[in-house]
Design goal:
Distance between the termini: 36 Å
Helix content: 55-70%
Radius of gyration: 30 Å
Number of helices: 25
Strand order of the largest sheet: 3-2-1-4-5-10-9-6-7-8
Number of strands: 10
Oligomer: single chain
Strand content: 5-15%
Shape: elongated
């Protein structure tokens, strides 16, 4: 029968953004509204030394940008800093990183939107005669919320629309900024006496010169956060390992040059005594001065720049903030609804709408400087965590290829970590409200995270009470077997064995694939009849094992789509698929297998059954300190008990310390085997290449059982870097296991 597609088939974005697209996505907010609004407040703190502030911020940013470049080249996934912090530490620290990143993107987006409203009202002020300050503020917020709603809709439609509109807006913005700079230097050439505005260059301020510079660096740091936005595009970029690091350097180089030029001409054009010199409208005042007898042209130029900067930033920041929330929802750090894609637009629509809600609340509740300081704080704390993650991941994931590697490691990320922490502390002197808002957001996040991660324990307590009032039916374990070869019974026999132990409902599914150029009913009727008959035989095999079973044949243009649809729609707990052991170039295990492993929201077993003996006698289990392996051991025990086979737990490591860790885990797995009466042997080896050692050891066995590593979530792997290589190289059958949930959330096979 023909199956219709459902909402959540794909969990990954199409890679349709190029280098130009992501440079524009990063430049939009980097050279946007912040440079127009923060030059004045920054000068009020540091004086003409604001130019030094921009230069120092560039140097400080380079350290973290190197960390981002290396991590982006190794792990180009949607989520950016959140993903890396989570990988380096644990789910709780990862959640905090993601929570800070999401709020940071949202609140800086609110800064751009509020700026749009303020300058729109400023430009319209001559026409608002008789309006009170309250009325003007209400109009400003109304305009801000309106433009926010428009760009939420743009992002809701899809990333390609976002990328194209960002390119146009960002190019126009650069033209306006360069026009301001050129006119400013022309004015400066005719007024050389304006050099006096740079003396004295340093301002001591209330806390001294050095502290004043750090305070100004903290306040203006938000203009350098473009590389975090670029990192959010990881899964949508062609050749992300090359393009993302390159986009970082291009963005920072262009942006810093523009910052220095805008800062120079603005300071030259306005003496310190000017009422505008230290206000958010300093650049607008300087532009009016540059145009002399036609000040409205200068004002219009800056208002247009702020407007376009807001538009460019809105695109980029709604884009990036929603990707953080999407990644957290997909990883179940937040409710799963955040990780869903729109059925037609293929965008994370729930994450986009949630980000829009947070942005809207910030617009209504904070003034522009409070928003800027809060955004600075969020990004500084996030970048501090990312630098720490870069140090940890270089050690724990050293085998992952990196097209860019930081020099002077670990000195560079240590400097980046320390400098960001110092700037974050200095922000308290600029605006204590930022730390209050940041603390409140972190507290809210911790409460939400605790409630979400403990939801199963809450259910355990509440469940018996609810069942005493309303008896609830027991949810039955559901196993789906994607049958490729209907004449091969080994895969189905394994599913029947799992079904017996779990008391499961087993569904056998075969997909007849029709080329996309042909209509769906263009199949050979005799072939379809033969397939149905063979599936009937397989169904009887499972039924004879006294397992509840259904079988069906699906006709579809896409095998993977049809299987993933069934997994999602039917609440499948375990997907079992066979693998021939071959693959095409550019794939990990194979087109369909790669998608099943990466996208199926359930546990999965991939079984290479070619050459499997009717009664395997010796089973090799690859040990690793990963919880996936304990579940793989459960399946190995099922097979060993059925065929009266023995299990050898093989531990290979490159250092003595790693080997000692694996010995402890191996002992735990051996205890599992002994508990179920399965003969077990433990073997340990200190080797140079773990992959070579496992491949060589496997030659003496009938079956290899492998559990996934935590790297399976990265799209360049199926089960993990070493696991994938081993599966492709060994000549014996391989059983590979991946659990999608945390140990306490999943069922372990009960031999």
């Amino acid at each position: 029968m023909v199956r219709r597609r459902t909402d959540e088939v794909e969990l990954k974005f199409r890679r349709d953004l190029g280098l130009r697209d992501i440079v524009m996505i990063g430049l939009g907010p980097t050279i946007g509204t912040t440079i127009f609004l923060l030059v004045g407040p920054g000068r009020a703190i540091a004086g003409p030394a604001l130019l030094l502030v921009f230069a120092l911020n560039f140097v400080v940013t380079i350290f973290t940008a190197m960390a981002y470049a290396e991590l982006s080249s190794a792990f180009p996934e949607t989520g950016g800093g959140y993903l890396w912090v989570k990988m380096a530490f644990n789910q709780h620290v990862g959640f905090l990183g993601g929570w800070l990143s999401w709020f940071g993107h949202c609140i800086v987006c609110a800064f751009y939107v509020v700026s749009f409203g303020l300058f729109a009202v400023l430009f319209a002020d001559p026409f608002l005669v008789g309006w009170s300050a309250f009325d003007k503020d209400l109009l400003s917020k109304g305009l801000s919320l309106t433009i926010l709603a428009i760009f939420i809709g743009v992002n809701y439609r899809g990333t390609r629309t976002t990328g194209r509109s960002s390119n146009v807006v960002t190019l126009l913005l650069m033209g306006l900024v360069l026009t301001f700079v050129v006119v400013g230097f022309g004015w400066f050439a005719m007024h050389p006496e304006s050099l006096a505005n740079f003396s004295p260059f340093f301002v001591a301020g209330e806390y001294g010169t050095a502290v004043a510079i750090m305070m100004a660096m903290g306040l203006t740091f938000v203009v350098f956060e473009g590389y975090e936005i670029i990192a959010q595009t990881g899964e949508e970029v062609r050749e992300p390992e090359k393009n993302i690091p390159l986009a970082n350097w291009i963005t920072l180089s262009i942006a810093t040059t523009i910052f220095l030029l805008v800062g120079f001409v603005t300071i030259a054009g306005l003496p310190e005594t000017s009422v505008c010199a230290g206000s958010p409208f300093a650049v607008a005042c300087a532009a009016q001065e540059f145009f002399g007898a036609q000040p409205l042209i200068g004002l219009a130029l800056v208002v247009a720049g702020v407007t376009l900067g807001s538009l460019a930033a809105l695109n980029s920041l709604i884009f990036s903030s929603s990707r953080v929330a999407f990644a957290m929802g997909r990883d179940q750090a937040m409710p799963r609804v955040f990780g869903r894609l729109h059925s037609r637009n293929r965008t994370p629509h729930v994450a986009i709408l949630a980000s829009g809600l947070v942005i809207g609340l910030m617009i209504l509740g904070l003034d522009i400087i409070e928003i800027a300081a809060s955004a600075d704080l969020m990004f500084l704390l996030l970048f501090t965590m990312v630098n720490a993650a870069a140090i940890v991941l270089r050690r724990t994931h050293a085998h992952v290829p990196r097209k860019y590697r930081m020099p002077l490691f670990p000195l560079i990320p240590i400097i980046g970590l320390g400098s960001k922490a110092v700037l974050a502390v200095s922000l308290y002197l600029v605006n204590p409200i930022a730390w209050i808002i940041g603390g409140a957001w972190v507290a809210l996040g911790l409460v939400i995270h605790y409630a979400w991660t403990k939801r199963e324990r809450i259910a355990e307590v509440a469940g018996p009470i609810l069942e005493a009032i309303i008896p609830l039916p027991e949810e039955k374990y559901h196993v789906l077997v994607a049958v490729e070869n209907t004449s091969d019974t080994a895969l189905v026999e394994f599913a029947a064995l799992v079904g017996q132990v779990e008391g499961a409902e087993v569904t056998l599914m075969h997909v007849i694939e029709v080329p996309s150029t042909l209509p769906i009913d263009a199949i050979d009727r005799l072939y379809a009849f033969e397939v149905r008959r063979n599936m009937g035989d397989l169904r009887k095999l499972v039924s004879d094992a006294r397992v509840s079973v259904t079988a069906r044949v699906v006709v579809s243009h896409e095998v993977a789509e049809a299987v993933l649809e069934s997994v999602e729609k039917e609440d499948v707990n375990l997907l079992i698929v066979g693998w021939k052991g071959t693959r095409r170039r550019g794939l990990v295990l194979g087109a369909n297998i790669d998608r099943f492993v990466q996208e199926a929201p359930c546990d999965i077993v991939v079984f290479k059954i070619a050459g499997l003996k009717p009664k395997p006698e010796r089973i090799l289990l690859m040990n690793a300190p990963e919880w996936h392996v304990s579940y793989a051991t459960g399946y190995a025990i099922l097979l060993a008990k059925k065929h009266r086979a023995s299990i050898t737990i093989f531990s290979a490591a490159q250092t003595e310390m790693e080997l000692n860790q694996e010995k402890a885990y191996s002992n735990r797995l051996a205890t599992m085997c002994q508990t179920h009466g399965v003969p077990v042997e433990e073997k340990f080896a200190k080797v140079r290449s773990i992959v070579d050692a496992v491949v060589d050891e496997s030659r003496r066995y009938d079956l290899l059982v492998v559990g996934a590593s935590s790297e399976w979530r990265l799209t360049q792997f199926a089960f993990g870097a070493m696991q994938d290589q081993i599966a492709r190289r060994v000549d014996i059958p391989v059983l590979m296991v991946r659990k999608v949930r945390k140990p306490e959330e999943s069922r372990q096979p009960a031999p």
